[in-house]
UniProtKB/TrEMBL annotation:
This is hydroxymethylglutaryl-CoA lyase. Keywords: Lyase, Metal-binding. Residues 5-272 form the Pyruvate carboxyltransferase domain. Its EC number is 4.1.3.4. Coiled coil: none annotated. It comes from Alloalcanivorax marinus.
């Protein structure tokens, strides 16, 4: 068997949270079902956040209730606080993700508190998760730049990521929220992070605002990272990151990794079809060049 990489499909959360059109829970669940059919095994299904802040994620409990459950599938959800954690537990999420940022201004705009306050807020969330045996992922946003503060010191990223690891997050996803990074910056960042956190516990989460995301993923792969967040059809962005576009398209990563001889477990044609399904519901055109080429073949 060839060496494997793991894709964390975030389109149904990161993607849809930023679309002007809000999709009904039944449609979101159908999308996720199609992603499962395509072979994705780790899927972010939604977020238990304030529906006033992010209305697109309302009804995440209903999405989870409609999903096929299997021991080889992990459905993850974002939780900002204890209330979100309780909702995630009640809905039967397999994993939760807490999220903070390496930039103070972004964090305040995103979750209305400082970085230190967010970490304190996560402590009881992690305790609840431990009690119920639910693994917790940790996100750090703005690792390669902030839409408000500009450059973000690498040391600040390492400090924040390490704090999440110490709190008990099994995996830390490093988010280039505004897609500002280039490969040399990714290399510098990862070299600094691995001094404190084993590379096996790191994931990368690159938005493709400036077309650098595939190059940045390849650089992360070369640095030993094996977990990659991506969105079908390149859905995505962040409501608190003006101008940010979608995550790197899942289709691009499947094409890249399979081409490199790395097993993703994903059927590209089914993935492209799942992208077509959600694009039709949103009235958008795919941001995945691989999907466009595949349809033209
Ligand atoms: P707040 O206003 O400071 O807190 O918001 P609050 O406790 O005063 O609550 C405000 C309202 O939210 C209240 O309701 C609460 O009941 C309700 P209201 O009185 O307005 O009707 N509330 C909740 N409702 C549902 N679920 C909850 C919950 N908690 C409170 N868990 C809060 C603080 C964190 C709640 C708010 O700021 C929030 O929900 N923010 C969400 C931000 C978000 O989802 N951002 C997008 C995800 S992060 C991202 O995309 C980056 C990532 O992709 C990585 C990358 O790319 O960098 C992960
Ligand atoms: Mg994101």
């Amino acid at each position: 068997m060839s060496e494997a990489v793991r894709l964390v499909e975030v389109g149904a959360r990161d993607g849809l949270q930023n679309e002007a059109r809000t999709l009904a829970p039944s449609v979101r669940a159908e999308l996720i079902g199609r992603l499962v059919e395509a072979g994705l095994r780790h899927i972010e299904a939604g977020a238990f956040v304030s529906p006033r802040w992010v209305p697109q994620m309302a009804g995440t409990d209903e999405v989870l209730a409609r999903l096929p459950k299997r021991p080889d599938l992990t459905y993850s959800v974002l939780v900002p606080n204890e209330r979100g954690m309780s909702a995630a537990l009640a809905a039967g999420a397999d994993e939760v993700a807490v999220f903070t940022a390496a930039s103070e201004t972004f964090n305040r705009r995103n979750i209305n508190c400082s970085i230190a306050e967010s970490l304190a807020r996560f402590e009881p969330v992690l305790a609840q998760a431990r009690e119920h045996g639910v693994p917790v992922r940790g996100y750090v946003s703005c690792v390669l730049g902030c839409p408000y503060d500009g450059a973000v010191p690498v040391a600040q990223v390492v400090r924040t990521a390490s704090a999440l690891a110490r709190l008990g997050c099994h995996e830390i996803s490093l988010g280039d929220t505004i897609g500002a990074g280039v490969p040399s910056a990714v290399k510098t960042l990862l070299a600094a992070c691995v001094t404190d956190i084993p590379v096996q516990r790191l994931a990368v989460h690159f938005h493709d605002t400036r077309g650098m995301a595939v190059a940045n993923c390849l650089t992360a792969l070369e640095q030993g990272v094996r977990v990659f967040d991506s969105s079908v059809s390149g859905l995505g962005g962040c409501p608190y990151s003006p101008g940010a576009t979608g995550n790197v398209a899942s289709e691009e990563l499947v094409y890249l990794f399979e081409g490199l001889g790395l097993d993703t477990g994903v059927d590209l044609d089914r993935l492209v079809a799942a992208g077509g399904f959600v694009d039709q519901h949103l009235g958008r055109v795919t941001q995945s060049r691989v999907a466009r080429a595949r349809r033209a073949d």
